[in-house]
Design goal:
Blueprint (H helix, E strand, L loop, with lengths): L73 E6 L3 H16 L6 E7 L14 H4 L26 E5 L3 E5 L4 E4 L4 E3 L2 E4 L3 E3 L13 E3 L3 H14 L3 E5 L3 H12 L3 E6 L11 H13 L3 E4 L3 E6 L5 E6 L7 E2 L2 E4 L3 E3 L2 H5 L10 E3 L11 E3 L4 E3 L7 H20 L23 E5 L2 E7 L10 E7 L4 E7 L5 E7 L5 H10 L27 H4 L6 E3 L4 E2 H11 L5 H8 L9 H14 L16 H11 L4 H8 L13 H13 L14 H5 L2 E2 L5 E3 L10 H14 L2 E4 L5 E6 L4 H10 L12 E6 L13 H12 L8 E6 L13 E6 L2 E6 L11 E7 L1 H18 L6 H6 L5 H12 L7 H13 L4 H7 L1 H5 L14 H4 L2 E4 L2 E4 L25 E8 L7 E7 L2 E7 L5 E5 L1 E2 L4 E2 L5 E5 L3 E5 L6 E3 L15 E2 L1 E4 L2 E7 L1 H8 L1 H4 L15 H18 L1
Parallel strand pairs: 1-2, 1-7, 2-3, 7-19, 9-16, 10-11, 10-16, 11-12, 18-20, 32-33, 33-34
Antiparallel strand pairs: 4-5, 5-6, 8-17, 13-14, 14-15, 21-22, 22-25, 23-24, 24-25, 26-27, 28-29, 29-31, 30-31, 34-35, 35-36, 37-38, 39-50, 40-41, 41-42, 42-48, 43-44, 45-46, 46-47, 49-50
Length: 1134
Amino acid sequence: RSAVRPTQKAAHTTTNTMGGGGQKPVWRATGVAWAALYVSTVVSFSLAPPRVSRGVPRAATSPADEPSQTPKKKRVVVVGNGPVGQRVVELCVEKAAAAGLENDVEVVSFCEERRAAYNRVQLTKWFETRDAQSLSLVGEYGEDGAGSYYDGNARASVRVGDRAESIDTEAKVVRGESGAEIPYDVAVLATGSYPFVPPIPGAKTLEGVFVYRTIDDLEKLTKYAEERGATRAAVIGGGLLGLEAAKAVHDLGLATQILEYAPILLCRQIDRGGHDRLVGKIEAMGLEVKCDARVAEFKGDDQGRVESIAFSNDGWDDAPVDLVVISAGIRPRDDVAKASGIATHERGGVLVNDDLRTASHSDVYAVGEVALHRGTIYGLVAPGFQQAAVATDHIVAALAFPKKNGAEVPSETNAVFEGADLSTKLKLLGCDVANFGVNNENADEGHRALVWDDPVAGVYRKLVVTPENTLAGGVLVGDAGDYAKLYALFKAGAPIDGPVAALLPPPSAGVAVNAAPSSTEDDAADPSKQICSCNDVSRGTLIKACEKLGDKASYAALKTLTRAGSGCGGCEPDVKKILNAELARMGADVKNHICEHFAYSRPELMALVAAKGYSSFEEVMKAHGDDPAGHAEGCEVCKPAVASMLATLNNGVVLADGRDALQDTNDRSLANMQRGGSYSVVPRVPGGEILPDALIAMGQVAKDFGLYTKITGAQRIDLFGAAKHELPDIWERLGDAGFESGHAYGKALRTVKSCVGSSWCRYGVQNSVDFAITVEHRYKGLRAPHKLKSAVSGCVRECAEAQCKDFGMIATESGYDLYLCGNGGANPRHGVLFASGIDEATVLTYLDRFLMYYCLTGERLERTARWFERLGPNDEVRLRALKDVIIDDKLGINAELEARMQHVVDTYHDEWSVVVKDDKLRARFAKQFVNTDTRQSANDMIAFEDVRGQRRPVDWPADGAPQTNWRAPDDAVFARSQTSWVDVGPAADFPVGLGTPVLYGESQLAVFRTKAGEWFATQNMCPHKQAFVLAQGVVGVTGGTTDKIACPLHKKQFALADGKQLDGGDLRILTFPIRVDSGRVELELPARDELDAVLGTSKLRVTCAGSSSSSGAASPALASFAARARNETAVYAR
């Protein structure tokens, strides 16, 4: 296509892995990783009050500012620039070029909002970044809000901030609010809809009542919530957008209730059974749901702000609220049509024909939520895009074949819009919800319904079947993993071969499904399979597009050419998967580099490290990185990755010989950092067996150090709330009681869970406890690409849940069945049966080979389940490939795998025992701040609360709520302060490649010393969650020159020189001048009271979700200081 849509930066894609590649080294063979898919097609958009006009004054404009009044080009004027309106613009440009009218047609779009088209389907994602750019459909926004798509585009322009008021259908002119009059040959109404606000007293008069339609709505809502310090909210409406709004408000840290007028949520998509499971999921998240709610009134306080909701339901008390979001449906925004004499329905909507022409004017079209087609208005994005495609076919045809002598020349297009499929697959409040066809059986038509209802797992599935054994529809809640297959069967309309009941169990149940006429694996090769439902893009279309693009194929280019992924975005993983497979098939070099510093994937780099026998990061960097001198800092990705490789191969002490600077924060502290910057302690309990004296000793340690205790699902005991300087003392006492590190902090073996087996259980056939302890002792300390979990069950009753572990053993009369590559978590997978009836020695032999093979060939942070899925197109092929290596030794590497594993076993050391006994290593934990013995406790940084007799930190507020995303009152807040150089200690006390915390007054600062000899000083608090942890992060370099720090909690990245956030957000940390004078480190700082007014720990302490004490509203001391600084600056300027 000659027209090019704006490209977005392509996400990093991966395919380079391994497989049963015979002649290739095991670590260089390739495969394709599978990815999850869900499609969200609902879109709701409207035009907000105008803000900015692109090059058009708000008052009268000069004719020179407007398109020519007698244009040589044919002009299409699109009224509305939402997703569907923007699609009309793009399709008109593309189809005109294809018809040879590239220089003869121009498109002008009116955009009422202050920024051009953005993706309203994903509106809730705005809360993640607070950045409209992430939702843009027109490329990067400039100051005028137009987007790079329109920059220098001679065939399309957008009038940002200019609301179209009417269409003069006689003069064929569209009039804008700015006074502009734009002539047209064809006009298109794409004005969308507006939110329906029920006539509830107080809805339009009280502050704190919002709708949820535009970015402006979201900005107003969050600002109000922060300024008021809101803690309670209600969402009126339990439809698709209402649930999205509820999630957004809940994520702001507000106690949220959903009030729905109908008896069930999502009444157009699901039935009562689906509602029950969905409500269970929602309420488990802490939200409240009330259906059949009759809202009578919004009541306000004496300041005119909403404070409660009254109901007309008998016995319902008023609900106290600080904020209300109304999402009670939409109404077509047809005011421009009515003002222009264009035919509309009495209940709303512009009447259109099957070609999307308006019923009253053949040169005016209507698409999207304003168009009433055969009595239906579609509130989803996919039908809107379909309408845009049909309409633009006719528009371009009409422009290419104009009327001659008053007669219409045939347009040579048969495109019609006959309605749209309303099937959807969504992720609502973290829960799969999908539907297709009918959701309730019709007895008159002989429908039958099959239902799977699992209240424990929160899964509900209903399939509606016709007498002909075809699918008439379905409802899937909680698990819609096979939606694509079921939807394809529904669309095909063919009788199902086999019992329909076999289709009913959800994928997560692990029940084999054999009834479908084509398996999931066959589906994967079907070129007609729909991948992007928003734009109706099939697998075959994507494959052809890849072939057309050739070596220029990328996700961005594929999205531009096919539009797959430009709607809801849910198909992105599958689009990338197809792209990578096609690139590999074409012989293209699909890069899967570990990071910007190494042009290798993890398996490739691991192969080099193993072959060369490297023992340090510097050696690896010098030989294979981007710095031949070996002095490069690396980054938070490659440093821990190389550290893990070195640990797997050499098994040295991770904190010795400079390797501490490579470790991720948890490995460097040998403990997991928790909220508030405290740490957890998890001793190893092999097989879950523990002596009473050891249990008592652990309890006494927890009591003496005030630690929160909890038994885990993996048969261990977690102790939470330890300060870093307390860890050696805690572990010394635990070591005396016989405990070793449980490696909960590392990508290593965590646990081998067991049942009591034949030791006690009357059903046990093998001693599962003994074998679990043997297995755990053998593989403890093994560092891997990701964490490893195991289990041993003493009989087929499977009480230890061995089939959902990375490796698990189930006892039988003849030995053990060995299962590999299962895992629970967010993407559960049952393990595959690798071998049956084998003895313990054979189990260990196979495990030695399997685990080391995985360690050598796995990608960074890749669980065994995902690793296994890359071995072939289906489990049968994958299992055969794995057996070829592990059992049949077809690669000839088993001796090496066994030797490497034996080295790990022989060199095992308890990491905490080493630290406790080594004075130098222990000293690294002793001081909280390098320049003082003063300490600040976790309670000084985050409030604690008593819960069931134990203390824990209060919940973090959700992103965007007060006490998150902290910002200084001014980036140059100390510019006018009197400063002085403050000595913070000898340079030797600041380790190279790490951060070191410093205390000045009550403000925590962080000093960073890089391998290149650079020094930096910043605040120690990460502004994201107001956690005092930056000094514990990983130091790195990006772009070759920019030194950075990655926060250990959520990996937010900040430039050490100027404090700017580097990973896409707009947060910033304060930085300070630093120097080394006569071997002493000095910081240039303002007076203590001024620094404490901005960065004092007590001012920034997180108190509770929803509190407004520190983030959104400045403290009195900070406000006073900031005001004084501004005044002094103003005086200085004068």
